[in-house]
Amino acid sequence: MKALVYQGPGKKDWIDRQKPAIQKPTDVIVKVMKTTICGTDLHILKGDVPTVDEGRILGHEGVGVVEEVGSAIRNFKKGDSVLISCITSCGSCPNCKRQLYAHCDDGGWILGHRIDGTQAEYVRIPHGDNSLYVIPQGADEEALVMLSDILPTGLEIGVQSGGVKPGDTIAIVGAGPVGMSALLTAQFYSPSRIIMIDMDPARLALARQFGATDTIQVGQEDAAAAVMQLTGGQGVDVAIEAVGVPATFDICQKIVMPGGKLANVGVHGKPVDLHIEDLWIKNINISMGLVCTSTTPMLLKTVGSGKLDPKKLITHRFGLNEILDAYEVFANAAREKAMKVIIAA
Which of 97, 121, 217, 302 has the least CB density, counted as fewest CB within 10 Å? Predict the structure, then answer.
């Protein structure tokens, strides 16, 4: 089969690899029909995630068709259409028992990280009964690819960890796919004001279409000062960091109000300066973490009902054999006006 393989920082290849096989009774082999590229994949290629070995097939998102099941699999059979979760869950370890699936003793974020991932013609999914979801008949599979990772990440690590509630003023720093996912799902909780902050005017214009009440373009104005002016010097109830660089985290810690929350979603490859000398007196909470995907069943229902339309995040489409072109577009998102790409078999 063909697969997108990480060959060390800055290097990747679309090459032949052996088709995966069942290794344990709880495995499922899935023929990948649609996948995508995540900002985390770009972080891996930059060398920000040293736990990824050279030779690893990248990717942790996608939908597909069950090709083969292990002898212990009860919920799936050959031919089933499935959504692949970015998080693998055994369902029985202490962390899974408390719904902390991201830290499963035999799973968590392993696809495209510690085991081969979804940017290939086939992928092996460990603990398939707990790590796959049946796609409802007639569902839009392109839209559901957004539920593998970015929608639950924006919701769980940004909106829910930030405790967004009705009437809040919130700011989202970073209008990429995860920041936009936080924007879409924050509206479940009826904040009165959503301020989107980014460098790209095209993304900010899109954010307004998706529900942002205010936008601030970094580089054209001092983002933190602009937020304070918009809020009458108060700051925001919730600041969501959705980029993963020191500058964006710094904006968040400058704009969070006393009693507020800073929810870090971005993947950081470098240390940040925590200005505890300013923050200690402000009674704030700072959260961060890896998505557990516990909201995926709810999001499936929400998308199915038409209340949430993640398909509007998709801007570009490619064939699987065009995956290197897809990476070029996604890595130059501002130039290409790209948000999320779909790569289809």
Answer: 97
Instruction: Tally Cβ neighbours within 10 Å of residue 207.
Output: 24
213 phi, psi to nearest 5 deg: -90, -25
Does 253 share its domain with 192?
yes
Question: Which CATH number belongs to the domain containing residue 248 in this structure?
Answer: 3.40.50.720
Total domains present in the chain: 2
The dihedral over CA atoms of 316, 292, 188, 184, expressed in degrees to the nearest 10, equals: -20
Report angle CA 287, 291, 297 to the nearest 5 degrees: 130
Q: In whole angstroms, give the CA distance from residue 72 to residue 144.
A: 26
d(CA 317, CA 338): 10
β-partners of residue 133 are: 83
Q: Return the pLDDT at 269.
A: 85
Q: Are residues 94 and 197 in the same domain?
A: no
In the chain, alpha helices (H): 39-46, 94-97, 128-131, 141-145, 150-153, 177-186, 201-210, 223-230, 246-255, 276-279, 296-304, 323-331, 333-336
Q: What is the mean pLDDT of residues 57-83?
A: 98
Q: What is the pTM of this model?
A: 0.96
Distance set, CA 319 to CA 34, 130, 341 (Å): 9, 29, 11
Tell me the C-alpha distance between 272 and 117, whole Å: 30
Instruction: For 330-339, write each residue's pLDDT tens digit.
Output: 999 999 999 9
Angstrom distance (rounded) from CA 342 to CA 345: 10
Of 64, 58, 77, the C-alpha closest to 30 is 64
- Say how many C-beta atoms besides its own lie within 10 A of residue 228's C-beta: 17
pLDDT confidence of 66, banded at 50, 70, 90?
A: very high
